[in-house]
Amino acid sequence: MPHPLLRTGLATVVGLAFSLSLALTVGCDVSSTGDGSGNPTATDPWADLWCVPDCTGRVCGDNGCGSLCGTCEGDNACTAAGQCLSTAAGSIRGTLKFEAQWPEVQGASISLGGPQVFPGARMLAVSLNTAGELTGAAQADDDGKFVIPLSAPATGDEQLLFTTLWVPSLDAENIVFSVLKPQDGGDPAETVSPPWAWLVPVPAGGDVGQVTITEEQGSGAMYVFLFTVEAMRSVTQDMLNGNPDKLKSLAVLWSPGIEWSCGACYASGAAQWVDETSKVADQSVFISGESGGASAWGYPVILHEFGHYMAQNYSRDDSPGGSHSIGQAIAPAFAWSEGWAGFFAVSTMSRWLQSPEPIFWDIQQGASFWLDYSGGAHDQGAFVQPNMDGGLDQLLDECWVATMLWHVWDGADVPEKQPDGVALGTDAVMKAVASKRFLSYDRGAPGADFVDFCDAVICGQPSMAWPLKQALNGLLSFPYDGGSQCP
Ligand SMILES: [Zn+2]
After folding, report:
1. Which residues lie below 8 Å from residue 106, measured CB to CB, with a gap of 6+?
2. How many whole angstroms from 317 Cα to the centroid of ligand 1?
3. What does the pLDDT read at residue 171?
4. Ligand 1 centroid from CA 265, angstroms
């Protein structure tokens, strides 16, 4: 019998993953703060963008803005619906981990290191009875630990399911994000593909111990899922006023051995289906699963494509597109679009790992490259620096745009190596690119560009005008003038 607290969204997820019967069964190794979002004020120009913690009907668990509604005491565990439920009757518990490959820099080249084990933080664990009905759910904590309260002790007939379909809350009707397992590659297009899913048998008593999803079992899908969900949470918190119902659905298509003609790309018009009648996404990101390539471990590329999805849907992107390469100065709106995506990739991962990781890297057919957005250099030399006499509308190297963004961003969410007097942090950066100033005005070169971004930051925080100008004119050699009028 489904738990009464579990509502439509989650039931849809489980129904889909289970009815498709495509889950891999994996063995289990039985061994066994303030709201952080600031406060809206009447004079705050970003007031409508602040995340509003929502604990309506919830006494524990996530408040939608990155902190907790409360914690449960003693034998009680927090259910996915934010209720403390006694586990005295019974529970299913364990720790979820997965294997991931991590990059190693050796001189000018990057290679993937041996498998490392990461905790399956924030992954949804759901329990199913023999009929495949949902009996409970929990979200794993930062260490991958989960406890699903049950109304009776586990008999040994239950199963545990982890899947790469994501609903932002149990009140949400629709799946917002999924990692799907394409059956064929080729040109990026609309497809019918199952989600990735893993089933774990539950022993009598309910302790499944440590479950480790291996690389062979497709742990790459879990890696992509976890850091992209983190990116979705940033979008919800900073750009959608904490309202996940405004998220535009997205799927990432990835499977080992499946390759796309674009390598990696974002397609705003490609919808995705898990069967003939169930559409799960209106837009897609395609990632090649080429062996000898970065594949699922190439988080900079995957998050770069997510950065394009974000700019397209929640910010503004006037890029003319076209070919571009490292060390080339291009039109400011084009450089903004690519530089933003690159910055978004490394800053998101840095937040996820809670340490500065300014290196953008990729490996294709065994060949690698890297870009250091902190140091302003790549494996072949330095980025192209702007000219202090070149005006606000000069051509820019997209990598330098990312470098400027990195330096005005770092120091708040992660420590900064080189103090530059500006540490905007993620909230301010995201709010700026979603602000009315950025969306509706244009200064500098035609189209949304780095100048518009700086103006938007200052419209939100006038006190930043001087430090921002100083940092850009000095260390970053961009002739920013300190801003113009605000809406
Ligand atoms: Zn791009």
Report:
1. none
2. 11
3. 61
4. 8
Q: Which amino acid is at 193?
A: S
Q: Which residues contact residue 57 at a Cβ distance below 8 angstroms, ignoring those fewer than 6 apart?
A: 81, 82
* Residues 211, 26 contacting (CB under 8 angstroms): yes
Long-range (24+ apart) CB contacts under 8 A made by 21-24 are: 22/181, 22/194, 22/195, 22/197, 23/161, 23/163, 23/197, 23/198, 23/199, 24/197, 24/198, 24/199, 24/217, 24/218
Residue, of 418 and 126, whose pLDDT is higher: 126
If you measure from the C-alpha of residue 338 to the centroid of ligand 1, how many angstroms do you get, rounded to a whole number?
5
pLDDT band at 65 (very low <50, low <70, confident <90, very high): low
Could you tell me the distance, in angstroms and rounded to a whole number, from the CA of residue 400 to the centre of ligand 1?
A: 14
348-367 pLDDT, tens per residue? Answer: 989 888 889 999 999 998 89
- In the structure, ligand 1 is a single-atom ion and the residues with CB under 5 Å from it are 338, 341
Q: How many CB atoms lie within 10 A of CB 97?
A: 22
